[in-house]
């Protein structure tokens, strides 16, 4: 997908939601992004799914990036594809780390069922919570594991159930 397509998609979003603040980024030729406010995620995703000109019927992935304690943010990148129109788009939201263990984002699993697994994985490994998720619990680690291993400030526990963790 070229940047022109991303601009066209952004224009359609702004046509529908004129007061929405969008940012287009040209990080690379392959990963142009539309940054949207986190509190507008469900609204925009619902539109991208339902709009007949776009019909983004497939959520490829949700990627979480920990920008570190110094930056104070996480980035969530949502990769969407319209199979019938053969186009993809990357939506980006930035989430503040200031809330510490109460960081939350609205779930999009009601729009795309595949978000269920991705959101659970991000919850498990980064500690971000997804509001209105129907089954938000760890998916890769045991339910009593301490911390979230993909966070840059993660402190690995020394022992888990009598088993030495660090070697």
Automatic annotation (TrEMBL):
The lineage of its organism: Bacteria, Pseudomonadati, Bacteroidota, Cytophagia, Cytophagales. InterPro entries: NADH_quin_OxRdtase_su_C/D-like, NADH_UbQ_OxRdtase_30kDa_su, NADH_UbQ_OxRdtase_CS. It catalyses: a quinone + NADH + 5 H(+)(in) = a quinol + NAD(+) + 4 H(+)(out). Keywords: NAD, Quinone, Translocase, Transport. It comes from the Bacteria. Belongs to the complex I 30 kDa subunit family. It comes from Lacihabitans lacunae. This is NADH-quinone oxidoreductase. PANTHER family: NADH DEHYDROGENASE [UBIQUINONE] IRON-SULFUR PROTEIN 3, MITOCHONDRIAL, NADH DEHYDROGENASE UBIQUINONE IRON-SULFUR PROTEIN 3. NDH-1 shuttles electrons from NADH, via FMN and iron-sulfur (Fe-S) centers, to quinones in the respiratory chain. Its EC number is 7.1.1.-. Pfam families: Complex1_30kDa. Residues 34-157 form the NADH:ubiquinone oxidoreductase 30kDa subunit domain.
């Amino acid at each position: 997908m070229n940047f022109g397509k991303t601009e066209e998609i952004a224009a359609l979003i702004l046509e529908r939601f004129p007061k929405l603040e969008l940012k287009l980024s040209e990080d690379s030729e392959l990963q142009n992004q539309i940054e949207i406010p986190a509190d507008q995620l469900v609204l925009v995703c619902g539109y991208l799914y339902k709009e007949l000109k776009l019909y983004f019927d497939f959520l490829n992935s949700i990627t979480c990036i920990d920008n570190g304690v110094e930056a104070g943010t996480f980035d969530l990148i949502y990769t969407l594809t319209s199979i019938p129109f053969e186009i993809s788009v990357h939506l980006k939201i930035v989430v503040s780390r200031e809330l510490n263990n109460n960081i939350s984002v609205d779930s999009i699993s009601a729009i795309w069922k595949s978000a269920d697994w991705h959101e659970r994985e991000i919850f498990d490994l980064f500690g971000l919570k997804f509001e209105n998720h129907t089954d938000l619990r760890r998916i890769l680690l045991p339910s009593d594991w301490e911390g979230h291993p993909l966070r840059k400030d993660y402190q690995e526990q020394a022992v888990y159930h009598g088993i030495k963790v660090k070697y």
